[in-house]
Known about the structure:
Elements: H1 14-17, E1 23-31, H2 48-60, E2 63-67, H3 68-74, H4 83-91, E3 99-103, H5 114-117, E4 124-127, H6 134-140, E5 142-145, H7 153-162, E6 167-170, H8 174-182, E7 188-194, E8 218-225, E9 228-234
Parallel strand pairs: 1-6, 1-7, 2-3, 2-6, 3-4, 4-5
Antiparallel strand pairs: 7-9, 8-9
Amino acid sequence: MERWDAVGEVDDLEAELLVQGDHLRTLMVASADGAATIAGRVGTLTSPADQRLLLTARAVADVVLVGAGTVRAEGYGPLVVEEDVSSRRRARGQTPHPGLAVVTASGDLDLDHPLFTEAVTRPLVVTTARSARLDRIAQVADVVTAGTDTLDVRAAVAALRARGLRRIGCEGGARLNQALVAAGLVDELVLTTAPLLVGGEAARIVHGDVLDPPRPLRLVGVLRSGDHLFTRWSLR
């Protein structure tokens, strides 16, 4: 699907968000003045429609890529989709439920968390070759090494695709987004704009070194639900 409907209520977007081949989509939410979090969490920035959009994007992804800090802050658990979604995934040749790939350079993870112990699809941990506790991590997750001392996001994405995980949905955080954008790996940004002004010094959806040159975006769709605005941008 090249474009979303012009402006309308958020509905079942699975067909629109389903793409073929290698594709990396970043999904983020921000306030109208650009804050990606409030007190370190998405919290009141999100909405029921935004959550529906997030779940629909997960439904079509082979794997959800997320930084360890976001996992901790937002309380991630096992990724499970409803049975009708699972049936459509099977028909497309995907796993019944989307995989989860947690990015951590340090290996500092709670490996007794239900995210690992109750996962329905074995998680992946993307880390460096010299990360702490690799043997322990391997007991509860598949280890993907990308870089020796510093995490190499190009190697990480290549390793995921080598496993057949071609459609990647990234859910942040902002520093992971920055690394992926800087490396030219992001194909699409889906951004929810919340009807709030936050102020302060909260991180933006892409946070880190200045992107030089700035990355151009092409608007390919706009939706709304209430006062929340949903925009879809191509980086290609």
